[in-house]
Design brief:
This protein has 338 residues and is an alpha+beta fold. Helices cover 27% and strands 20% of the residues. It has a 9-stranded mixed β-sheet with strand order 1-2-3-11-8-15-6-5-4. A 4-stranded antiparallel β-sheet has the order 7-12-9-10, with no helix packed on it. Strands 13-14 form a two-stranded antiparallel ribbon. The relative contact order is 0.17.
Amino acid sequence: MVDAIESLSIPVIDLEPARTGRSDEVAQTAQEVYHAFKYVGFAYIKNHGVSQELIDEAFEWSRKFFALPQKDKEKAPHPPEGWYHRGYSGIGREKVSQMVFDEAGIAEQRKRPDVKESFEIGNERDPRMKNIWIPEEVLPGFRSFFAGFFETCATIEDQLLRLIARGMNLDESYFLEYHRDKTNQCRLLHYPAMEEELLRQGKAERIAAHSDFGTLTILFQDEVGGLEVEDIHEKGKFNAAPFVPGTAIVNIGDLLMRWSNDELRSTLHRVRAPPFMETQGDMSGRMTCPRYSIPYFVSPDREKVIDCVPGCFGPERPKKYEPTTGGDYIAMRMNATY
């Protein structure tokens, strides 16, 4: 069922009824998911099947990793190619921005680096993009934990793809057939404490307003906050998407919006300064709180051709986009980020 939380424009959807097997409850949940992604592009999902204990452990491992000496983190360096999205990226390496197709536009949006560091993890069985891990002795157990966490997150992916398909009056396996290889990406993100003034003056960004690349994104965030989502009624206005206990935030990516001929919405979002705390010692300065988040990006199999979903085009509703493959589209967007 959908919960109404005052002041939130993003619906909260409970997946538990869909697990009963009763066709009416599954159908109702599918309609709630479809409605959220058609009109908002975002939803808080509860009873998604990943235990809070496991999520808490993931954040603890993430904090341990980012607390390592810089020289140890850099033992798993992100390759120079943007498309090979694995390993560690230091602060300022990546600049996420909304997709633009001219060099001048890209240059303008990349002037302010993102003040964050990240570690990218993929499917351990992926033959094309192998994971890049720090040595086991640097942080024993880190690799095995996140290899398993990656697989666990894929169970949420499968639930949501079934519900989206059913909500669109498709066979519930429709999208699953395009997501067999699990060419997904689990990302550990750390936004270190920084001067408020730099953010206020626009001299630095957490993450600028952007939409995600792929099919959908499953996000776990800590209690600090900072995520904002563009208002569906007022372009340029962003509303806070705070931490809601027991939920993951899920949003549609550009590829699924394209795939559905804009039936589903890929909504702009950004990360701004979380709540402030006074610095110790120099009370004239203000520092943001450090923030951690773990997004899980879902993408289709690389060789699958992504054309318009049945029922989303016709004589009076032409296709807006040319066919592409999952691999070509994601690689193009990744290369623009680095």
